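In the design runs reported in the main text, the only information available to the sequence generator was the tokenized backbone. The following block is the verbatim input for one such run; it is reproduced so that readers can re-run the procedure and compare outputs position by position.
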């Protein structure tokens, strides 16, 4: 039996909400609220409609709600669908190891509805899953742009299995088996960013976590050395000498990190754009700059930046991963919105013209300023009258991080708009009231009744 694996499993079993800081509970309650809105908006998108139709045709024992779908199905299938819809717009939060809430919330809701869990049970399991995923990530030198596997999928499956095991009250041996089972489930490739398959990565991670915990509960046995073995999960994904198994457990819950790391999104596009967008939009507002005044915009990017995948996007989804397109949007139309990321919009002649004003400057691998992907994105606006204005917003100061909060008005406004894409107006208000304080809900099924919708 692997010592690392056993220690992680015991931590999952022995940790309770009573030992978790109140700030962590507060932040996760916010994250859940935000994610429900994003999922309802995602259910109305093309990929959302595809995965909703898939679920209807597949059937399944009606034990878990499909948010915005108007039906129930099996817990594993509900997790797949809700996770995919939750990531459909790339409008869900980030932090720790990728996009945590679009994996952990579908996982915990699917299991939670089946067993009648409370809101506090959901929050507890979410936090435990998040911390396990973060411990695995921080103990490695994993970089998705180097290894090629989406970090949300790599760490999300393990985090989801931990959360599902906690909700099912598995014992340490069963929990270890759940983690061992999910270790054999695959991860999504980065090349599928900018397609409908990227959201599927989150859905698959959530489904895998549910399946693994349920199989372990029924007695399925996996290797107990899935982390320490050179033929195990860590070595396969991280590579030779790129991880530390002792570090995986050294800081678990000591301290908790979720309350520092979750960041919400103001814009429905890849988070790699957000430092640039905050800086650029601030310059335009502060100096009252119009599009007609601009001669050009210079944007710095790391050679590893995910938002350089599509220099000239051909689809709306590709546009979410194009720093050139998002820069053009900002100078031409202001802050990016959901309607800006359609196949028709990226072909708009006005935006095509605006993209010609954008100049990308790539920081090479060997440049002294290339220390990682989370460096501030420097942006410079050059005006036709010769003036220039520059700004570089640090990642921790992007609006809607824990260090620079968006505020209640921002979070609520985002929820109300997103939820309205799948729910009638009166139901949106009811859902907002309940989901904003989900920790007060005694049975999660009553809250899910408000957001299942009618599949319109």
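Verbatim output:
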């Amino acid at each position: 039996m692997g010592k690392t694996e056993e220690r992680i499993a015991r931590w999952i079993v022995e940790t309770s909400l009573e030992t978790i800081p109140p700030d962590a509970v507060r932040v996760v309650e916010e994250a859940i609220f935000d994610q429900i809105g994003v999922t309802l908006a995602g259910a109305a998108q093309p990929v959302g409609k595809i995965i909703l139709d898939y679920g209807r045709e597949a059937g399944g024992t009606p034990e878990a709600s499909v948010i915005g779908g108007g039906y129930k199905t099996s817990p594993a299938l509900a997790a797949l669908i809700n996770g995919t819809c939750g990531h459909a717009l790339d409008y869900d939060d980030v932090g720790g190891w990728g996009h945590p809430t679009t994996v952990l919330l579908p996982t915990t809701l699917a299991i939670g509805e089946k067993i009648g869990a409370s809101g506090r049970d959901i929050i507890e399991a979410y936090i435990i899953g998040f911390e396990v995923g973060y411990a695995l990530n921080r103990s490695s030198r994993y970089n998705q742009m180097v290894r090629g596997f989406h970090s949300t999928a790599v760490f999300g499956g393990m985090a989801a299995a931990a959360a599902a095991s906690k909700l099912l009250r598995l014992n340490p041996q069963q929990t270890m088996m759940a983690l061992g089972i999910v270790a054999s489930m695959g991860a999504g490739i980065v090349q599928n960013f900018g397609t409908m398959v990227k959201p599927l990565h989150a859905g698959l991670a959530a489904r895998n976590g549910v399946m693994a915990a349920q199989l372990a509960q029924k007695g399925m046995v996996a290797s107990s050395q899935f982390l320490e073995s050179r033929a195990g999960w860590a070595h396969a994904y991280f590579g030779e000498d790129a991880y530390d198994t002792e570090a995986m457990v050294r800081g678990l819950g000591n301290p908790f990190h979720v309350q520092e790391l979750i960041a919400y999104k103001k814009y429905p596009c890849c988070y790699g754009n957000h430092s640039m967008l905050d800086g650029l939009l601030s310059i335009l507002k502060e100096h009252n700059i119009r599009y007609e005044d601009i001669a050009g915009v210079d944007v710095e990017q790391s050679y590893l930046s995910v938002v350089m995948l599509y220099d000239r996007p051909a689809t709306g989804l590709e546009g979410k991963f194009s720093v050139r397109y998002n820069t053009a949007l900002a100078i031409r139309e202001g802050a990016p919105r959901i309607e800006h990321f359609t196949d028709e919009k990226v072909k708009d002649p006005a935006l095509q013209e605006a993209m010609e004003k954008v100049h990308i400057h790539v920081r090479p691998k060997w440049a002294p300023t290339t220390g990682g992907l989370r460096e501030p994105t420097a942006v410079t606006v050059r005006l036709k009258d010769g003036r220039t204005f520059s700004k570089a917003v640090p990642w921790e100061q992007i609006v809607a991080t824990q260090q620079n909060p968006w505020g209640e008005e921002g979070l609520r406004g985002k929820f109300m708009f997103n939820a309205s894409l799948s729910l009638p107006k009166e139901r949106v208000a009811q859902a907002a009231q309940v989901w904003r304080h989900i920790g007060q809900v005694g049975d999660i099924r009553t809250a899910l009744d408000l957001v299942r919708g009618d599949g319109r």
